Target: Tyrosine phenol-lyase
Amino acid sequence: MIVKLSTGKEIPIEMHKIRIVQKTRWVPIEERLLAIRDAGYNTFLLKTGDIFLDMLTDSGTNAMSDNQLAAMMVADDSYAGSVSFYKLADAIKEVLGFNYLLPVHQGRAAEHLICKVLMKPEDIILTNYHFTTTKAHIEESGKGACLEIYADEALNTRSTHPFKGNIDLEKLKKAIKDYGKEKISFVRMEATTNLVGGQPFSMENLMAVREVCSEYKIPLIIDGSLISENAYLIRQREKGYEDKSVEEIVREMVSLCDIFYLSGRKNTSVRGGFIATNNDEYYDRIKVWLPFYEGFLTYGGMSTKEIEAMAVGVREMTDPNVAGCSVEQIRYLAEKLTESGVPVVTPPGGLGCHLDAKQFLPHIPQNKYPAGSLAVALYVASGVRSMERGTISTDRDKSGREIFADLELVRMAFPRRVYTLSHIEYLADRLNWLYNHRDLIGGLRFVTEPPVLRFFFGKLEAVGNWDEKLGEVFKKEFGPLG
Ligand code: F0G
Model:
């Protein structure tokens, strides 16, 4: 929630009490320099003992509520027919309106099953933007390709467009005509678009996409891993929705798709995922593969404790103080950074605050990975772990050629209900310092490069050991314990 102070300034207020805590550790600069080198200049390979604030992701890292923790105590650990499963099915029916539920161990497992069942080799998936695991499954499990049909504004990092996650309708119709509707297994809308900077799509756009899909009889799938945030932003930004509740907006969104799936690690604050639909045929076709890859229908690879917590999480995710918790913190940080000239993606969206590394580090060419370099520099200057979302996160093409990402972003993810305003103030301060010393930051090059999803395990080195110089300058200002 946003509260106005007597000075006129607005701040995001945490609408929860923190009653269970996890200690974090202040990691001095010398240790940070050693840790990032040991991690091959890849923030995925840092150990959390070497991290002050972990903003790598909001996936599986949200704070659970007291009611979620309590629900875990009454889990029914049965292989088949678990009461816990039926509680989740009831919650999904009530909140989202779906009759059929297919639980899976996490979001990418849903992508695997959907692509395996719905795609034919060489099919095309049309989407507002890909996510890394989605693209991998479209190519590997579905033996096809994915085509992004975002509006041009999506790639403008200094935009005021409220819905950069929209699909471009003309491009959508053109793609269907060019490829032929029988080659398109489904259209996928990601709410909110992760790799474009957590940008939402509008209800108006979703309705228009629905109409096109109905006209050509192409299934519409929503990846709702951050659907509550998308709905919260629709309420804030779309005319006609200001008086609707987040729950009503979510319900309206999901009523427009044929298949819905999500990573429960995000919106529902547990470790799991699910596919839901009202279509008997899709349900039956996917269901047969569930015990093969995930587990029996009534647990799908999740622990029943997590299923219980998910049933509560599905009901809690549309509470505006849950749906808006990270959105408002992200907005606060993004506005603060914009005021001091640090280039961030605008307008701020869900998931995280995103630095535009191309603008932050114009002297580093894409083949030296500016976003990867900035994530390293941020860790060195603050102990905050962020994630590269640029060319390192984009694998080479089949002939081994580098594919330069559309955007070079550094994502500082905001897990729900985890960090406080003082953490954000600290982060803003260190980012300012870094921006003023950006000339010290250099590029990276691969030392070990895996052939697929290379950003997870790839190891790199700092070209010209620029990290040492940055550390030296930092120590002069903040001391060896800074
Ligand atoms: N779809 C979206 C939009 C996601 O953001 C993610 C995961 C997935 C699918 C896959 O779900 O991790 O449960 O298998 N995003 C995480 C992130 C990993 O850090 O943004 P998963």
Q: What stands out?
A: The chain has a mean pLDDT of 97. Residues 92 and 98 are 6 Å apart (CA to CA). Residues 57, 59, 106-108, 131, 133-134, 190, 194, 223, 225, 263, 265, 273 surround F0G (CB under 6 Å).
